[in-house]
Amino acid sequence: MPNNKKYEIVPSNTFLKELNKLSDAHKNRVLDTLEILKRTPFYPSLRTKKLKGGYDERFESSVNMDIRVIWRFDGDRIIIALDVGHHDVLKKY
Q1: Residues 20-42: pLDDT tens digits?
Q2: Minimal CA–CA distance to 77: which of 10, 21, 11, 28?
């Protein structure tokens, strides 16, 4: 995907539920990360990687060394935020 456009972030119900479980400090870091993701999904500090398996292309991006955001593209202007949580959130995918 080209990195020269701004994406809209659409959070899933799961993402919102899991986000609310995080501390306020972690929530703020997640929101900062989503701002970067909107502009440049593969920005180096996000350490974005494609997840293996599944039926659609899903990605993980790092908020910090522990927190991850799981997401996918939906068309050419939307990113669906699927899930967020501590590193073990990856076990769901």
Answers
A1: 999 999 999 999 999 999 999 99
A2: 10
Beta strand pairing status for 78-86 and 67-74? antiparallel
Could you tell me the pTM of the whole model? 0.87
Rounded CA gap, 49 and 17, in Å? Answer: 23
Sorted by sequence, the CB contacts under 8 Å of residue 52 that are 6+ apart come out as none
Domain ranges of the chain: 8-92
- CATH number for the region 8-92 comes to 3.30.2310.20
What residue has token string 């502009």? Answer: 39
2: its two tokens: 């080209």
Q: Are 47 and 37 a contacting pair, CB within 8 Å?
A: no
**If phi over 0 gives left and psi between -120 and 50 gives alpha, with beta otherwise, what is residue 47?**
left
